[in-house]
Amino acid sequence: MHVVIVGNGAAALSALESFREHDRDSRVTLVSGEQGPAYSRVLLPYYLRRRLSRDGLFIRRADDYARLGAATEFGVRAEGVDPARRVLELADGRRLGFDRLLIATGSSPMRPPISGLDGPGVHTLWTLDDAVRLDSVFREGARLVVLGSGFVALQAAWAARQRGLQVSVIELLDQILPRVLDPAAAQILSERLHACDVEVRTGTRAESVETDRGGRVRVSTSGGDRLPADAVIVATGARPNDQLLPECLEPDRPGIPVADTMETVVSGVYAAGDVTRGPTARGGPREIHALWPTAVEQGRVAGANLAGAGRSYGGSLSMNVTEMFDLTVASLGQFVEDEGDDVFEEHDRGGIRYMKIVTRAGVPLGAIAMGAPEGAALLGRLRPFVRHRRALPDLPAFLAREDLDGRLAHRSAAKERTSCASLQ
After folding, report:
1. What is the pLDDT of residue 413?
2. Going along 21-165, which residue ranges are E strands?
3. pLDDT digits over 48-99, tens only?
4. Where would a tag sit more exposed on the chain, N or C end, judged by fewer CB atoms within 10 A?
5. CATH assignment at residue 148
6. Residues 250 and 228 in one domain
């Protein structure tokens, strides 16, 4: 049997290792459009902050692939799949036959409909090459405008400030990190950015980016301002690289839909990671969960099933943990309450600490922890209850064990509140 894995990120690597746990003999080929062994995209901001060298970004070496018995085709882009002939078409004209195929091609930065984004001063922070280019731009005193306010955008902004750049962040919505934080937590983080001399403009649209012959850049906004910049970073979201299986896609719904086994509608063809629309822990419609832990979990299931192990994926659950501007920021599940939900929260309005747990009929739905290093561990202990929709048998006792009894005020949500932040 010949198994082909397209991709070289978390899902692909996890699948390769999982496959070899079940099948030590079949031939495996890994195809990646980027050159060389795998590196961590999550660590790219640390490179820009000069906390890691370029070599420190790599999470695999060439001999790791050899140890797992995988032939590698680095720097070769996959361009199409012929399911009937069981062939993967490569950009260099070759056709690679397979018996089973895994598509783990990840995602790419979205390009919003803003004129001027093809200019020389406009960048993304997605690949190692992107980070190397930005490193040469990050000069003390230079002016940077960041479009978007997700994790990539704010990590880039933090790296730039630590390198001495002047930074402005432009966000179309009314708060930063809209998919990760509720409005109260977002306000705390916004104040932190302001204290670190980062200008934050929420509720603002970037209308155009203009670059003159001298390389000077100006960003025109919906507020009528023209912000001068030496560089612009576009970080307004990502889109799955789902072009290999167009026959599997649904109209206006990005991502390759997969079953609980991570198999697509094409028999013997699997998908995992950011490219997929997979099952969620709460049930309901399949969704894209572009998170590293999700990619690893899906990859393990896909790899096992490439070997015929018959595993099922239990569904994705959002849990985000990061540090930025010297703040630990963590969120889990559905953290924006609906009518009738119970909310337990601590909001130190004079400082930077914020903690919130949302429950429904005793079942934890989600939580946020900010400004408390122990908050991420707390969310980790809540995660099994949220994932399996299991009631905490004794919430007061749980809070006491976490040293939170008496600190979290309780309230019942009086009216329905909706937000894109409630997406899991």
Report:
1. 80
2. 27-32, 70-74, 78-82, 87-90, 95-97, 100-103, 107-109, 122-123, 143-147
3. 999 999 999 999 999 999 999 999 999 999 999 999 999 999 999 999 999 9
4. N
5. 3.50.50.60
6. no
